Amino acid sequence: MLEDSHYYFNKAADVLGLSDRLREILWAPIRTIKVDLVIDDDDGKLQHYQGYRVQHNKARGPMKGGLRYHPAMDEDHAAALANLMTWKTAIVDVPFGGAKGGINCDPLTMSEGELNKVTRRFVEQTKEVIGPTIDIPAPDVNTNAKVMGWIMDEYSKYAGFSPGVVTGKPLELFGSEGRDEATGRGIMVVLDEALKSRGKSWQDIRVAVQGFGNVGSNAARLIAEQGAKITAVADHLGGVSNENGLDVDALSLWAAEHHTVKGFSGGTAFDNMEIITWDVDVLIPAALENAITEDNVNDVKADIIVEGANGPTTPAAHEVLVKRGVLVVPDILANAGGVTVSYFEWAQNIQQFRWQKDRVDEELTHKMREAYAAVRDVAEQEDIDMRIAAFVLGIRRVGQAATSRAYVSEEINF
Ligand code: NAD
Questions:
Q1: Full residue range of the structural domain in which residue 113 is found
Q2: CATH number at residue 146
Q3: What is the pLDDT, as a whole number, of residue 409?
């Protein structure tokens, strides 16, 4: 995965004419942490889990990024995702750098008590290098507001009351209104911009969504509310389709109860791998990386793709989509709504002040439209696709901050 990010980084660095020296400085993470997390499981047996945190860049502010609990989590994933966070926070112009981490574990087989213990152990092992002005975790795959609440509680034992150490917390523990749905809302807003640029309206489009977790389910709901039809949804166990449009609220209730969309009676079941090539106008990969690859890209039918997940498209597939003229709104722009409202949450925590949901939604919408326009302008000026344009914008802003802080002893003339 890190290799994929490096490919896009280098393409953007070529557009910027960055020297090898600057590429090296901007690419390398500033700190990589691996911790051994030992807990007693529910049967009293000792279990070891590996925890990771990669802190990539802090030129523009404290580092920021999610925590992923997944059996595939490793240093490579953390490094690649941390790198994406650095450019993402710069693209939406929030005052953060980039980080990412997680625990190599399978939460689907663990009890809540075990997850609680392993989360607290992670905080205990990383408490010196995280904090409201250092590095601020947030939810990602298989972590949620409850886990963020545990992190706040554990960290506060060492540092005193510190709601700003983590975002995506429960509302009653100083979370922000609108954070839960923020990534999905951001996706809806950038899709609105993409539709305008293609002369389409909400009523014209059929949409397929891969992944029905935090990102996929909220994106599907908000897009359906605009009048589009969500005709197919898939998760790790199966897919469900309905050409007349799925009832997303009913599907959400089903998924909340059964932890999958599989078995939902308001549509027809299909194999989850088929979602990427479903006959739709818009595809939203909102699960994991490497969903659109060389193997399936030629069968993709959507002509707009909005990347809810991080890294869902491999470089080879990216090149095919660019050649075919598919409009891809890249991950580092499309899913930046989450970190944007995380910034609002952090700002509220620091000021000990609460915003109403209307204000959160309005400011998020404004930030996402502004970021979309900035990326589109770079794409037009440089005659490049939206993904490389997003990298160019992010790298340029981080590079300028690094130069202004004078720790890069070389002028960046861009
Ligand atoms: P989540 O754990 O809430 O949901 C993940 C979903 O993906 C689940 O529905 C799961 O069943 C599905 N899935 C897993 N493997 C699959 C497969 N092989 N085929 C189809 N579906 C599969 O996670 P999330 O928070 O919604 O994150 C999803 C993606 O969005 C990740 O790439 C994450 O990094 C990215 N992201 C999340 C946020 C956020 O605020 N949560 C912000 C930015 C980006």
A1: 29-173
A2: 3.40.50.10860
A3: 56
